[in-house]
Fold these 3 entries.
Entry 1:
Amino acid sequence: MRKSYVAAGVVGLALAGLWYAAGGTRTAAAANRVSAPVAHANLAVYFVHGPDAVDDRRVVTLPEALARGWAVVHETGSVNQLAVENRSPDHDLFVQSGDIVKGGRQDRLLAADLLVPPGSGPVAVPSHCVEQSRWAGRGQEPAGYFAASDKLVVGNALKLANANRDQSGVWANVRAEQEKLSQQLGAVVNAPASPTSLQLALESPAVLARVGEYRSALLAAGADRPGVVGVVFVVNGKVTSADVYGSNGLFRRAWPRLLEAAATEALADSAGDHPAPPSAREVERFLAQAEQPGQPDTAPADRAVNSAGRANRQFRGVDAIPFPELGVVVQREVVDSIQFGAPDAGLEVVREVVQPETAGQARQRAAIYRATQADTRAAIYAAPFDPVARPTRRGWTEGATPAAPADTAGNRLANTRVESGAAVVLEAKDPARNAVFHKSYIRK
């Protein structure tokens, strides 16, 4: 059943520090307000209104720049890092965390906000693979660079994996999104050209047709509203995510892709009845709580010791495993558990396949290790390991996930993160303008 409605009332968004204007901090109560929702089916949209904090007249987004030939996203041969080059002589290039770039050797998901100056040369950007197995050009697409970026990350679990620099979590949630969409539509959305590609699944005619229904109902609501700088999405009656920008112009450029991604999530998670959307005050409460730092919720590690005295660890959300014996960090592709011997026993490599690499680039390997279950696979990348987190006789030392890479040289934005028990908030601030360029709220 299709349903559209507008709830009455407008409420101030009481989020101190949500936005920074030139010359100092402005509280959200003074600068922003959230309008009542517009909705279609199980997706409700709340617009955030506020003044422009940045001048966007000389800013171009990645999709716009690629279409105009002003930018190049270079393949580097490293799964988790690409290079963005701004070739415009007079426009800054804005790259948003969650942008999907299509092509190269594998479709990728970008994992940081960047503001790249004109004539920048290549600037590194962290990325995650959203397409497994392929490591060559696809069809007529170039293998050395990415020709388009018309899709955004879909689903909160996938957003969190991207924010946490969790490659295995990204792969797992790409599969989950494809499976949910296929189930909802009664047709396989995986593309024969590359069944693991999230990008190609989002291009499925069946997906586009159903997402188009949400687009037709909601796109106009945010396209021409003056003073809108952000949007909050609610799926099945629960806040899922929000994005707030430094200007109405930046929001307008992002709005169609934001809506498409949220509509795809709503489609994948549709479950019969459409709950009434929460009040604006409830949305306000969620956003306010998301701004409060707190200890993240963590599940206890599962450990067991078998009769041979070897320790096992079940991997749930852990994607980086340092092995000092090999001098590498193992990033899980499909791992249920790995069996460790005593610290001096080392590891037995059963089989190894080395993929092509160029000089100076990180080595990517696929290997099969002796494990508690047959045919357990892990992807290995040559990288420094954390000496504090290493296999032990008990199987694992806590704190194993390596720190996220620092912001790269050439990026004018400072990326920071606040994590509460309910959400992760990613903020990209331009120190030169003393303004927040983009802030993303991701429900945990």
Entry 2:
Amino acid sequence: MIPTPHIDLTDASLIAKTVLMPGDPLRAKYIADNFLTKVVQINNVRNMWGFTGYYGKKKVTVMGSGMGMPSIGIYSFELFNFYGVEKIIRIGSCGTYTKDLNLYDVILVKDAYSESSFAKTMGISSRKILGASTTLNNRILKAGESLGIPLHLARVHSSDVFYRLKHDEFKTIHETYGTDAVEMESFALFANAKALGKKAACLLTVSDSLITHEATTSQERQEAFTKMIEVALHSL
């Protein structure tokens, strides 16, 4: 069943069993350039950049997912279902809903709440909260401990909308569902892993605060969020 419509590769060996998946393809290139050796660029990924290389002796692929649940839903499904990928670790940014989290703090997502119909429409589950892989999360927690990088285990809100017109609705979502931060992809990634019997996890760096209105720049989001990258790679 390869090539697929969005990952136009006929050689599945070019993709490792473990994929690190930032939303921004520029972050994928940054990881490949600064953390991996023996890197091969995967040129046929439609609209995204993919790279396969080695972190120590571990083979890993880094590929952008694009923004939002439909985009990561497509790329992660094709990787899991057609290219033999067993584990995907999303590495992204998020906005915090609580004053207990600060810019640059790293979150390990325990589970994700969403209003999205992604899982229900796909026929996986009508549940609004889906969890990450416990096995994979445990490996990531151990990696964080060995590197001395604190990880905040938390529930996040996976939103379909970035520019919510009723801005203060986040306060009700935070209080009702216990969500500490907001992003736009992990719910769909967890749904695909659940559907296909694979493993998925999500590491996020706090890029802005809905409480204090502090925010990082696009350049910082691309190049300064290195702690979660180090933890993800160290967990391989």
Entry 3:
Amino acid sequence: MDVVFAVVTAVVASAFAVELLISWRGRRRLHAEVWSMAFGAYALGAWALVAGLSLGWTSLSFRSFYFFGAIANIPLLAAGSIALVVSERAARRFLTPTMLWVVLGFFATFLAPFVGELPTDGIPDGSEVFGFTFAIEALTLPGPRLFAAVSGAVGSVVIIGLSLVSVVRFIRRNRRLAMANVLIITGVIVPALGGTLTALGESAALSLSLMVGISLLWLGYRMAVSARETPATDDSTVWEIRVRSLEEKPR
């Protein structure tokens, strides 16, 4: 069943990334562009998971799974959320160090040596394979686990924080939009819980949590888009107004 869950996750994430890319091509909104990158990373990580579970783990498949799934996607999703909820200017300021961080994380993930052997079945935990630091000659560098820890912590705090603010704003004037944000929060938290269970030896939980997480994120996005039909009551409804632009056609 792990492979089935991983395939569903990869297909849904790929479709979500394509939908956001089409939205960006129509209106050139920064949040749609960055979110398409974020869910493209989610999809690539899921496809690497499919390869590892079905064909056996290799250095390339695990490193791809770890980089796209644990390092790249959450900070990019956070940057897109800032563009949607706050402003594109604020998002660009956040996006510059984020992209640098992701690039450095890429090199760390693909250069760091393994500290243990890849298991023959299940999903490897990062602590079994990578260290927090690694050395190149006399130089000690931050390892993939450090990049993953910072990416997950900072990205999740930004996404959950902005979503909670939106829930408080809309709980009375637009309950559907508030519920959409609750789904987005849950979609971020569930995969993190799955990763924790994987570290405790429940590897099947990660495939299921990734599938549930991407499904909740997509459902939250679709619900937020449909909530555009509710008229904005004041200037604080920036989330609703900007979500509406994802579906509008240029005049």
